[in-house]
Amino acid sequence: MGAKRFLYGFLLGGAAAGLATLFTVPQAGKDTREALKNSKDTFISQLKDLKQSIMDVKDASAYATKEGRVHVSHFIKEVNTSIGRWKAETLPQQIEIQKEIKEIETVISQLENDLAAHSPSNNKDETEKRSLQ
């Protein structure tokens, strides 16, 4: 929408400039017609150049978008491959760490049981049980 409004403004400005020139130039009719013809040709040439420039920008942006998609897609594939490789490489260490954690939990549980069995409150209860027998 912005390019369309710009083009309308450009055309309207060119027409206004042409009319202003026509009414303010103190030349003969033949000279004025010749000047208008040259101005018209220049104006048309500038419009063609502008159109070509806009098309070049459009083509460049389409190409950049296409290339960007290709590169982003390739980058995502590489990242996923790297993550998969890292997971595969670290899996043995993860398994080993999980085993060690289970062993530590088992040892802690055994220590808690041993401490509970040898605590003074349990010894006092056992002494009372023996004395009753």
Report the span from N to C terminus: 103 Å
Shape: rod-shaped
The percent of residues in helical segments reads over 70%
Class per helix and strand makeup: mainly alpha
As a percent range, the share of strand residues is under 5%
Number of helices: 3
Taking all Cα atoms into account, the compactness measure Rg is 44 Å
Report the mean per-residue pLDDT as an integer.
84
In sequence order, what are the helices and strands, one letter per element?
A: HHH
List the keywords:
mainly alpha; 94% helix; 3 helices; 133 residues; 0% strand
Q: Can you tell me about this structure?
A:
There is one protein chain. This protein is 94% helix and 0% strand. It is mainly alpha-helical and 133 residues long. It has one domain. The longest helix has 89 residues, at 29-117. The radius of gyration is 44 Å and the shape is rod-shaped. The model has no long low-confidence stretch (mean pLDDT 84).
